[in-house]
Amino acid sequence: MHNFCQDCLDPLLQEGTPSKIKCPLCREEVELEVNTVSELEDNIFLSNLCDLFVVANINNVDIFCSFCSEALREENASRCIDCSDNLCDKCAKTHTLTRLTRNHQVILMSELETGTLVKKAREGNIKTPCQKHPNNHLEYFCQTCQVPVCLGCTVVDHVRQSGHNLLNLQDHSTRDAYKEKITEQITKMEKLMPLF
After folding, report:
1. Helix, strand, coil percent values for the chain (each to nearest 5)
2. In 10 A of CB 50, how many CB atoms?
3. DSSP letters for 28-88
4. What is the spatial distance between Cα 68 and Cα 76, in angstroms, rounded to a whole number?
5. What sign does the CA torsion over 11, 17, 21, 23 have?
6. In 3-state terms, what secondary structure has residue 183?
């Protein structure tokens, strides 16, 4: 659960024993299931938080369009909420026209200051991309493996016929049931927190 950039972890992988790396923070030796540091899973929450920090400081930090690499300023900058791409005016218009991205929500970066992104995140309108299939969003939850998965994962790794129990996260009854469970857990946790 400790997070580091790839540049910091690369030398540690070369120093350690094959397929093991020592955490720079707690010194615990961790067994790797991958061959290189670049194959490790990203912390999506931390990554999105870093993106939001950069976007919030658009006039102080160099930000470029994810597609044409044009330098962005607040007056010509947009952001796709669904795929977290930073876009110039031209690319933002194109982004809303393609078959794959026409339903994406593209907002002006100036709207971010008003809390639009936070509001949309709370409403559940921001879709999280799958680690294995970056073009797909997490739409299912595999109860067998206890992980969120995309449509591609349900075909390859989490197949119902192989005994995987999948829940559709878009199903209102599923969302309501889990929302209720999460609310119960939060209430219990709030009662316990003063004891700590």
Report:
1. 40, 15, 45
2. 11
3. -EEE-SSSSGGGSPP-HHHHHHHHHHHHHTTTTS--B-TTT--B--GGG-EEETTT--EE-
4. 13
5. negative
6. helix
Q: Position of tokens 């470029």? A: 64
Pull the structure tokens for residue 72. 């962005």
Tell me the two tokens of residue 58.
Answer: 């658009």
Is the model's pTM score more than 0.85?
no
d(CA 96, CA 59): 25
**b/e burial code for range 123-151 (CB count within 10 A of at least 16 → b):** eeebbebbbebeebbbbbbbeeeeebbbe
For 60-88, the pLDDT digits (tens) are 778 889 899 888 877 788 888 777 788 99
- Structure-token pair, residue 66: 């994810």
3-state secondary structure of 5: coil
